[in-house]
Amino acid sequence: MNPRISMITLGVSDLERAVKFYKEGLGFPQMESPPEVAFFTLNGSWLGLFGREALAADASVSPVGTGFNGFALAHNVASKSEVNQTLEQALSAGATLCKPAQETAWGGYSGYFKDPDGHLWEIAFNPLFWVGPEDS
Hints:
There is one protein chain. This protein folds into 2 domains: 7-59, 2,3-Dihydroxybiphenyl 1,2-Dioxygenase, domain 1 (Roll), CATH 3.10.180.10; 73-125, 2,3-Dihydroxybiphenyl 1,2-Dioxygenase, domain 1. Helix content is 24%, strand content 32%. The chain is built from 3 helices and 8 strands. Strands 1-4-3-2 form a 4-stranded mixed beta sheet. A 4-stranded mixed beta sheet has the order 5-8-7-6, covered by helices on one side. The chain is globular.
């Protein structure tokens, strides 16, 4: 298997609200897509938004679940100030702050927010090395 993540699909409770958060709030570029799903191009992969119950049915699993989903999405940026700016942008768009930006035990700087559906995002600056594809 060639290691890569081609697309991350998030199950959402309100597709219109989720699209507004990612498109207008965070500025993600939306692709044309059928009305029951939304796709956004990321730098090297895609983000998909799909109804939570429909996504669970597609995977043959229960849509019921609360609390920590067991994973976090990470968005790395080039500076501490960009961490702060990105967190503020997310909060202005309707995110909930989980952990304010702060120095980390591993030598970086990061904070966490949850999107309107509770998906956990870390915004991080790693001064040791760049994580991810180069910005376009």
